[in-house]
Amino acid sequence: MSAIAAPPARRKRRPMARAPQDTPAGLWTYLLLAVSMLFAAFPLYWMFVIATSNDEALAKLPPAIIPGDRFLTNVDEVFSLQDVYFAASLVNSVIVSTVVTASVLFFCSLAGFAFAKLRFKGSNALMVFVVLTLTVPNQLGIVALYIVMGKLGWNGTLLAVIAPGLVTAFGVFYMRQFIVNTVPDELVESARVDGATTMRVYATIVLPAIRPALAVLGLLTFVSTWNEFQWPLITLSGTDFPTSMVAVSDLASGNYVIYRRVLAGAFIATIPLLLMLFIGGRQIVRGIMEGAVKS
Amino acid sequence: MSSTRAAPAPPSRRPAPERGRSGADERRLTWRNRLYRFDMRYMPYLMIAPFFLLFLVFGLFPLLFNAVVSLRNYRLDDPTLPYWAGVENFSRLVADEDFWNALYNTFGIFLLSTVPQLLLALLVASLLNRQLRAQTWWRVGVLLPYVTPIVASTMVFSVFFSRDFGMANWVLGLFGIGGADDPIDWRADKMHAWIAIATMVNWKWIGYNALLYLAAMQSIPRDVYEAAAIDGAGQWKQLWRITVPMIQPVVLFTVILSTIGGLQLFTEPMLFDPNAQAATGGPNGEWQTIAQLIYKVGWKDLNLGYAAAMSWALFLIILVVAGLNYVLTNRLSGGRK
Questions:
Q1: How far, in whole angstroms, is CA B212 from its chain's centroid?
Q2: Between B24 and B73, where is the model more confident?
Q3: Overall average pLDDT of the A29-44 stretch
Q4: In terms of residue numbers, what domain contains B269?
Q5: Is A7 a member of any domain?
Q6: Is B278 near chain A, with CB under 8 Å?
Q7: For A151, how many CA atoms within 13 A lie in the half-sphere containing its CB?
Q8: Per the domain annotation, does B111 fall within a domain?
Q9: Residue A58 resides in a domain
Q10: Residues near B87 by Cβ (< 8 Å), separated by ≥ 6?
Q11: Which residues, numbered 163 to 202 in chain A, qualify as contacts with chain B under a Cβ-Cβ cut-off of 8 Å?
Q12: ipTM above 0.95, yes or no
């Protein structure tokens, strides 16, 4: 707020005409932002605190806020619990998220390319259909999805978790927008004149040009697939190969819940995503912000 | 491809046009032509086919098939019932106290989470919409909750909101609320449970929505602010009179998004319950949401037909509420200028 209250002399020279994004942030802005950061980060930090503590940390006031030294002990307990299958669950989550991400990137960029640069009958109508499906909450078909998977014999296997995620309407939409804006028509045309097939154009011209968009979509897809809970719970619970989210929720079931174990498991299952945010944060931010302006 | 070349049928359809040329040469040419025509005409469809096939099978079909299941007796524990149930599932729904209770909870939590969420997101966005040092890191920072699995964060918040040694009660105690001798039992009544769950939802989505708003704010033309500054509008006034109306499309988008997401709330209410597997949302359903009730009816009571009817009802509710919110937000954020 103080940044705006400029000295009167300056105001006389020129009325405050700067847009907010051109105004340097003042002390208050930084302070308030720091408070928001604290709110955002504290639950994660505290998850780590309990993951490293003994049982007493949760039974005292004021609450513990400094990490203990039992992280490895707790983690060891989580991994050696008989009916939680924690190690397997991490492998499963890696498999599911990787396969889904690879598939989304391939199929959505193919379809995005077709919608952006190729002429074919019905392309406009079909694209409208894609945009409409963006708004369909497909969680609502979950009962029928379970029945379909039952008919296919896939319930209780990773296939049931992977199959529904293989393509997303958002992916097609996002890829189309990006290709429209970044791949020049002339480039596609001239490759065509040289006798390149459509797939060749895709491989040699489109793919290299859309690498940034692939990074964005890949990160967003991986994060959301890794975090999925409801459908994996329905189709995988009770089996001996859950995903990591189902395994963490299993840690917390039973009559007597040991929270240092639960949070140690939760923390381990969160680490891959924190790493992704650390490495690809810029791309994730960009993806979310670009999606906003275009929609 | 090789089968096309070997097939004898196509050449016979078209009488050989030029006999002078060598057969092999001509065959290669037509093969190329055919490949080219195939590539131009059908390749686009092949490229979009995987998306549409997978979406139809695992997205659209379940949604439609859901309607059929909702009209059937589909009990996993009793397959002997007659095939069709007619509207029985729906008439049961109307009289089902659990359903109305879950609907009430869902809306309560939805209101407590959506309104503060979007308002705070607006504030965070306007903080971020400044020339900042280490700009990218602030933006990445607000996304910490977004990448954190809801399963993990709900576990943390569950401990925060425990009655005896919870962080929430301790902090409130510092301000003279509750305190060690009279701690708040966050799982004992609706209002407290709703607040606890809404807090989790807010924590998760404020940063994400803030980035959506920030993106829109940065595409507002700069001269709009110039005009406002000349008119003497202060910062607060600028936010409400210029920024919000200018980013109205994105505001509408986030309202719709959080309506769709908020009415399907599942993970938070599930894992807030120490006895999560029962899916009852508290001993007396204090915070059982519809998505949770659907899970309980379908996979604990094994009555998929009834669960399908409930999903269908939820779908209609989402449509209506999303529509209402659209109109309402449209009025509120753009109406007064």
A1: 15
A2: B73
A3: 94
A4: 92-334
A5: no
A6: no
A7: 8
A8: yes
A9: no
A10: B71
A11: 163-164, 166-167, 169, 172, 197-199, 202
A12: no
In a domain, residue B12? The reply is: no
pLDDT at A16 over 70: no
Instruction: Establish if A61 touches chain B: CB-CB under 8 angstroms.
Output: yes
- Number of domains observed in the structure of chain B: 1
Tokens 């998004």 found at? B257
List chain A residues with CB under 8 Å of B155: 47, 248, 252, 259, 262-263, 266
Confidence label for B180 from pLDDT (cuts 50, 70 and 90):
low
Residue A209: which CATH number? Answer: 1.10.3720.10
The stretch B89-107 carries a mean pLDDT of: 93
Q: Between B107 and B3, whose confidence is greater?
A: B107
**For residue A123, what are the domain limits?**
78-294
Which residue in B147, B250, B264, B280 has the most chain A C-beta atoms within 10 A of its own C-beta, making it the best mutation to test that interface?
B147
For an interface test with A, give the residue of B53, B73, B144, B239 to mutate (most A CBs within 10 A). B144
pLDDT on residue A98: 97
Q: Is residue B239 part of a domain?
A: yes
Chain A residues whose beta carbon lies within 8 Å of the beta carbon of residue B157: 43
* Nearest beta carbon to residue A46 from set B137, B144, B156: B156
**Structural domains of chain A, count:** 1
Q: Give dist(CA A270, CA A59) in Å, integer.
A: 25
- Nearest alpha carbon to residue B295 among A140, A138, A89: A140
CA distance A259 to B277: 17
Nearest-by-Cβ selection for B156 from A43, A115, A119:
A43
Find which of A44, A61, A143, A258 to mutate to test the B interface (most B CBs within 10 Å of its CB). Answer: A143
Residue-level pLDDT at B26? 63
Q: Is the pLDDT of residue A285 over 50?
A: yes
pLDDT at A96 over 90: yes
Residue B248 lies in a domain: yes
Q: Is A204 on the interface with B (CB under 8 A)?
A: no
In 10 A of CB B92, how many CB atoms?
Answer: 16
- Residue B202 near residue B116 (C-beta atoms within 8 A): yes
Residue A12 confidence class, pLDDT cut points 50, 70, 90 = very low
- Can you give the CATH number for the domain in which B328 is found? 1.10.3720.10
Name residue B86's amino acid.
G
Tens of pLDDT, residue by residue over A112-163, are: 999 999 989 999 999 999 988 877 776 788 999 999 999 999 999 999 999 9
Using the Cβ of A85 and the Cβ atoms of chain B, whether some distance falls under 8 Å is answered with no
Q: Where are the alpha helices (DSSP H) in B182-247?
A: 190-218, 222-230, 235-238, 244-246
B119 touching chain A per CB within 8 A: no
End-to-end, the C-alpha distance of chain A in Å comes to 32
Residues of chain B neighbouring A295 (CB-CB closer than 8 A): 250, 253
